[in-house]
Amino acid sequence: MPKPKKRGSNHQRGAGGQPRNVQPFSDEDASVETMSHCSGFSDPASFTEDGPEVDEEATQEDLEYKLKGFIDLTLDKSAKTRQAALESLKSAFSSKILYEFIMERRMTLTDSIERCIKKGKSDEQCAAAGLACLLCVQMGSGIESEEIFKTLGPVLKKIVCDGTASIQARQACATCLGICCFIVTDDITELYSTMECLENIFTKAYQRDRDTNGVSSTHNTVLHVSALLAWTLLLTICPMNEVKKKIEMHLHKLPSLLSCDDLNMRIAAGETLALLFELARETDADFFYEDMDLLTEKLRALATDGNKHRAKVDKRKQRSVFRDVLRAVEERDFPTEMVKFGPERMYIDCWVKKQTYETFKEILGSGMQYHLQSNDFLRNVFELGPPVMLDAATLKTMKISRFERHLYNSAAFKARTKARSKCRDKRADVGEFF
């Protein structure tokens, strides 16, 4: 084989056969367009009229060269090197659309992910599962993605059900299994099989109060939360007859999880209940829940919780979530949220849409806005239509000069300072007493 170019020497082993440190994927490895979600692409004020031109073709070639090196390093003998390579690929896949690049190497990537999940330890398995999610997000729904899931699905299920595997690895694989199945499968049998696998995990939390080994139950809670959320995501794409069966099976059991000591489990259970009520009322406008009074009492207690033994941050988060859950269950109301990305707006107006958005946001992180703009699969999921293409003239009209931006920021800073000073001034609260 020909020797690698000098520029790629960072990917080779150093003297004595010791692995060198992997240079992680950084912001500089992507073009200005790629990292728009980090630099404020959606804000017109982020554009500047001056600055050096970027050779996008050369930048793309350099990026692909580095990614090829990372793919090769996923087969390295060093676990630390493999994990670093996986994390770098995750950063790249979440921040840029790389469909053509991945299409040519999808089987190589799939084999590397499978190997890392099977033979790696906890951190490496988590990184590989996260990369598998992003691989399916990049590929979208299609034959190629189905092939990936056919290879990785059984491996993920095996880890999820393996009681000897680390909780973190099982948790990551449960999330990955739900997301990949949501994206890929058109096979209803595979959908039901995956949901059953996840059900077998989170339903164990129903027995938590009866479990004599409290430490073990608490230890497994993070896994139960991930399995419940992944199952809920898949429920949103089930046929209505299956949805009815699942509602009958779980609606009376889920309220028991609202008493869990873990905040994340309480929130996951509450949001799942809100979603189930939403689906139930879609299938039957006259849907009636027998224990409504008891349930609303529990939800109201969580929405107004003032227990001193809980952290203030946790209490604020819990009260905020359960106020919305209570409104959904009691009043059939949902507080509409707006998400901005580029020149577009998306309104989240139901629990199904909220659950889907939060799931992909957790996987994509800061790359969520970029993918909402450019990823055909995500745009199809949220019914956004084809990507909006902005020409140079439109972009130019969105530009704001540095001087104008400076004036705006200065005025905003002064107004904010005055408002805060007024609120902090104790004399503002002093009144006259007669």
TrEMBL record:
Keywords: Developmental protein, Differentiation
GO biological process, one term: cell differentiation
Ranges of Acidic residues composition bias in the record: 50-59
Basic residues compositional bias, start-end: 1-10
UniProt keyword annotation of Acetylation present: no
Region (Disordered): 1-59
Pfam families cross-referenced by the UniProt entry: IFRD (PF05004), IFRD_C (PF04836)
InterPro entries, sorted: ARM-like (IPR011989), ARM-type_fold (IPR016024), IFRD (IPR039777), Interferon-rel_develop_reg_C (IPR006921), Interferon-rel_develop_reg_N (IPR007701)
GO cellular component, one term: nucleus
Subunit structure: Interacts with PSIP1/LEDGF.
Family, similarity comment: Belongs to the IFRD family.
Designated name of the protein: Interferon-related developmental regulator 1
Lineage, broadest ranks: Eukaryota, Metazoa, Chordata, Craniata, Vertebrata
